[in-house]
Amino acid sequence: MTNLVWFRNDIRTQDNQALNAAIEASDQQPPIALFIESGAQWARHHRSARQIDFLERSLNDLGESLASMGIALKILHVPLYADVASALQEFCNEHGISEIFANEEIALNERLRDQSVINAGLKLTSFEDIGVFGASTLANRQGGMFRVFSAYKKAWLKKFEATPRLFGPSMLADSSWNAISATKIRLHSNLNRGISESWPVGEETAYQALESFCQDELDRYDDERDRVDIEGTSKLSPFFAIGVLTTRQGAALAREGMLLYNMSREGCQTFISQLIWREFYRIWLIEMPELCKGYNFNESADGLQWNDDEVAFERWRNGETGYPIIDAAMKQLNETGWMHNRLRMIVASFLSKHLLIDWRLGEQYFSEQLIDHSFALNNGGWQWSAGTGCDAQPWFRVFNPELQSAKFDPDARFIKHYIPELANVAPKMIHEPSKHDLNKKANYHSLIVEQRYARDRALAVFKQSMGKEQEAG
């Protein structure tokens, strides 16, 4: 009998519990590796074509690595999750599979898919491989999940500092199988081939980029990560999103960067903090599966009355709001499939607070565009920005796009790159479109809404709908 390792959101050989277990459980013959493409399901989930293209390229790199170990990577095309169990059962019967090894996926439909596989009588051994610490590892005093990030982070760091070893199996279990030729992987999803080519693929490439970042750039990370006009972020998010890299690897190498290469403690802690956000939001999908159905994390937000303004949404989506920082950010997203994290917060706040348009529309649009899309992070980030998420005092936070623009793109270099028609306009004018009529001076888009009016309106609507009594700060 043969074992099967089912790759899902873990496109790597290193630090992969399911693959490691499948190899250890195999004796005379290697396990078979399998990836299941569910194109129709992905379309329902609004998965971006860029990420699917990136995934296809990454799968081919994975296939080469597995083939060098004597493991064949095969693919099944099963449009909907509802049909996976029967297709997998047929595959297992055909190949004499005795046991399936897989790392858990935490979104609701994926969990239901896995349960249907078990219900079909297949032996599925799964591993909680989503992060440094499992969902049940960190709990508050009542034994439940932390609802506020700061408390979760404090508990996470305490446990992290008390755990000296590197996380995860860094090497694969020993195997002695002969190398084979890899088979070309082609996904059937409707792709514009090559739209992710500006992003390199490969587990070795990703790990080297992580290593280089932790050895050379952590010193500057705390000071530069919010600047949108310089390369201050790691740009590793596409690798984390499809599991080419793990947060275990990131946290371990960040700590090594501080201890072995004298990187700043502030930079190390700030980078690790971003990894903790990943774990926090993913674990909440386990605690609140209804988040996958568009529910507000904070039920107090259920009474919010959103604007049904298709024209305003279209202007936001196309980068035509009249606020250059908003417009440049959206153009970056539309052109590259990526957006700086600071900008994601600014444009999300603008849509949900300045325009009072339902955060779910923005969340869906991001998922359709982002090469680094992760449902947990996208949902968590949008709800945080919209004031409906897990935050102690979320509703009265309204990002001022003009102040954000001046602070994080002081010379307007980022803005001018994506909006060349403003190339000859002074940065001060670009940062203050409410004071300087860019429509007259540069034939630029008029303001979609006035800054002060939008802020006051948002505070009034949120205060009334969410039943808050605090004065806005």
Element layout with pairings:
Layout: E1 2-7, H1 17-25, E2 32-37, H2 39-44, H3 49-68, E3 73-77, H4 84-95, E4 97-103, H5 108-119, E5 124-127, H6 149-161, H7 203-216, H8 218-224, H9 237-241, H10 247-260, H11 265-287, H12 310-318, H13 324-336, H14 341-354, H15 359-369, H16 375-386, H17 401-408, H18 413-418, H19 427-431, H20 438-442, H21 451-466
Helix pairs in contact: 4-5, 6-11, 7-10, 8-11, 10-11, 11-16, 13-14, 14-16, 15-16
What does this protein structure show overall?
The protein is mainly alpha-helical. 49% of the residues lie in helices and 6% in strands. The protein is built from 21 helices and five strands. It has a five-stranded parallel beta sheet, with helices on both faces. Strand 4, helix 5 and strand 5 form a beta-alpha-beta unit. Helix 8 crosses helix 11 and helix 10 runs antiparallel to helix 11. The longest helix has 23 residues. The protein is globular. The C terminus is likely disordered.
Largest sheet: 5 strands, parallel
Strand portion: 5-15%
- Roughly what percent helix? 40-55%
- What is the helix/strand order? EHEHHEHEHEHHHHHHHHHHHHHHHH
Distance between the termini: 65 Å
> What's the average pLDDT?
92
